[in-house]
Amino acid sequence: MTQPELPSALSNIIESSQTPDAIFSALLPAIGDFLQSDRCFLYLHNPQNNLGRVAFCWIRTPDVPTVYNEKWEAQPPTLVDDDPMFAAALRAEPSIFVEDVETADSQVLNQEFEQKYFGHRALIHAHIRQDGQLWGILQPCIFGHPRVWTEYERGVINNLVEKITPIAVDYVKSASDSL
């Protein structure tokens, strides 16, 4: 099955030839509008040194918690055990679309972990990977109620991840050069 074309609001940002900072800063609110999500953040990961950070975060309203890391940090050694979705991303498995954190299978996510660190009720855990390595996770989410992700939305997100992967990889590599 071919993936749907990106809505112009998203494709125009990606094709704008701006810096990765400008692209991601503009893209997250556009994703939020497209999905009607409450928060959208971009976690970036360097597979060479296992450092990561949430470099970009958009929230719809001030009452939604922000997720952001100023500095690149090592992943806790227990993260793979505590967070099945992060483990799946490291294994280069397909992106995960969670309609309800409260009823999701424990093989898919750790409900306690999600509630403690993120607080969302529904989310997309979109894996940005290249050459079998994890470079980032795009995570739009909903608070307070479940959310069914349509086939169209799933296709758009998968297409979007393909398009932003080289931008994310370049961002991580250039950030690593300055560490």
UniProtKB/TrEMBL annotation:
Q: Which residues form the GAF domain?
A: 20-159
Q: Give coiled-coil spans as residue ranges.
A: none
Q: Which organism is it from?
A: Nostoc edaphicum CCNP1411
The organism's place on the tree of life at top rank: Bacteria
What is the protein's name according to its record? GAF domain-containing protein
InterPro entries xrefs: GAF, GAF-like_dom_sf
